[in-house]
Amino acid sequence: MRLTQFARRCPGRGSVQSTWFDLVTLTVEAFFLLFHRRLYLGRSNVPRTGAFLAVCNHCSYYDPPVCGTFLAERPFSPIGRASLFVGPFGWLIRSLGTIPINRDGADAAAMRAGIDELKAGRVVLVFPEGTRSEDGELKEFKRGVSIMIRKAAVPIVPMAIEGTFEAWPKGQLLPRPFRRIGCLAGPVIPAEEVAELFKDPSAGMLELQRRIAALQQELRARMGRVGS
């Protein structure tokens, strides 16, 4: 249940930090419902307990808060670009558990921090494209995150977001209201299957990219966006 069961939802994280996460995500979700008629599908695929790595496509500043509201039952630590950690916004994302990473995506300290979160039984979110898509289409996944995947040995929840590019594309100063956004989580990839897939990191990342591309196409169809 939201706002309770902190030990189950985010073991080891204090109740104050978890409550703050809940208050922020509840506020943002109300905003998305009002201004973007958000459509969230596959929430039943999100594990209620235990560590997992959420992996998602990335095309907008909206993507982290979309994932935050979608995964609100499980407060998580997203991995975000280090250059964002400035001023009041930097304070906000740090207070929500964001882990800073250098732009090349191969930051050893960020990888260790993510692995520590997962080893503690918590949840981490990554965008393996490394930056926002410039046209809303899925781009090549960077291999840096494969280090964390192999060392953490936890299940993966593949996710896809659609509509955020139209709502707030790269280069647009402010978001555009009333563009519909959606998020879909696919079936969990068990830790044993993850280990098998990532015996070859390049092949593992390609397979993960393939699954998320399929989810994105499914979400587009569910939103009536195929061929648009």
Task: Please give a structural write-up.
With 228 residues, this protein is α/β, with parallel strands linked by helices. The protein has 9 helices and 7 strands, in the order ααββαβαβαβαβαβαα. Helix 2 packs across helix 3. The radius of gyration is 16 Å and the shape is globular.
Task: Name a few traits of the molecule.
7-stranded mixed sheet; alpha/beta; 9 helices; Glycerol-3-phosphate (1)-acyltransferase; about 230 residues
Topology:
Blueprint: H1 6-9, H2 15-36, E1 39-41, E2 52-56, H3 63-70, E3 76-81, H4 87-95, E4 99-101, H5 108-119, E5 123-126, H6 145-152, E6 156-162, H7 164-167, E7 182-185, H8 191-197, H9 201-222
Parallel strand pairs: 1-7, 2-5, 2-6, 3-4, 3-5
Antiparallel strand pairs: 6-7
Helix pairs in contact: 2-3, 5-6
Can you say what the CATH homologous superfamily is?
Glycerol-3-phosphate (1)-acyltransferase
CATH topology: Glycerol-3-phosphate (1)-acyltransferase
Shape: globular
Which consecutive residue ranges, at least 5 long each, have pLDDT under 50?
none
Helix content: 40-55%
Average pLDDT works out at 94
